[in-house]
Amino acid sequence: MSRIFFTLIFVLFFQSSFAAIAGLRDSVGRSLTHSAKSALEGPASEGAELPQLDLEWASRGGTGAHVGDEIEFVVKAKPEDLPEVPTLDLSMAEKALSESGWQVVGSVGEPAGEKAKKDRVVKFLAYPLRAGQLVLPSLILKTSEGMPIALTRPFALEVQSAISPKDPKPDKSEPDEPPVSLDFPMWTVVTSSILGLLIFTAVIYGLIYLWRKKKPRSVSIAEPSLSEDAAALLALAQLEKSKCLERGEYKIFYFGISEILKEYIDKRFQFDALECTTAEMLNSLRGKTEVENISSLFEKLDRVKFTDYIPDNHEGADLLEKGREFVRKTKRQPEPLILPQEATTHAPS
Question: What CATH number does the domain containing 136 carry?
Fold first, then answer.
């Protein structure tokens, strides 16, 4: 018996709990529905008490427009009707504008001044998005603090399609036009060509001028050419100053005398003495000069050059001096200067 009693109490408890939860849910739903309805209908209910202002079509004077046209509307009011220059509140009208086929872009109020003391002016741009009889719905005007202060009256407008009624294919767009070629007068082409050529020439000339200006000019100084005897005597003097004998560098010293004399003979007697042996050189010199002294000189030079013979310093100095004497004796003699004979004039007798 007690078990049945507790079971009945448990069932009644759960039924009362479910009823309380359902009642709470309905209450919350009604509250949310009322809040949403108030939020959606709030501007309209407030607008019922707000002054309504007429719209003026400022950008066109006719009664018709085409799809996509930019239409400027103006709202004017007296200072006693509006405490300040208002702006449009489009946040509550986006859906209505879209359904009505309109797009409205912002608003620009008239700046404060003498005119603003007489009239309150608001301008805004509207674009019809489809053809037919369109009605621009009421728009809310608000203060700088966001408080609604007025409504615009609906504005009816006949909007025509931008596509011509005679177009055979109104649902297809026209193909792109090809590029248009421009014909220039002949004098323009000739003048431009000449001007371009002159500019190009001036640029090239300027670059060449700068390049030549930056490039250092090298001044070539012609060195005086020495005769073969002067060159040989100069080379012998430089060999003497080298102090090869004092350092015991006999082969270098003897080879130096031999090469200097051979180069002199090569140029003086016009044969390839540098590539000849001593015997070949002496044979070529026979008949051109006395070879006895030069033969003895080269014999002593070759003995040091091609053997291990070590001479003394006096012999090397003596051979150097004999080389100088050979050059002086065999050098070219200057050609005699022949002066023109003086013309003798005889006075008439």
Answer: 2.60.40.10
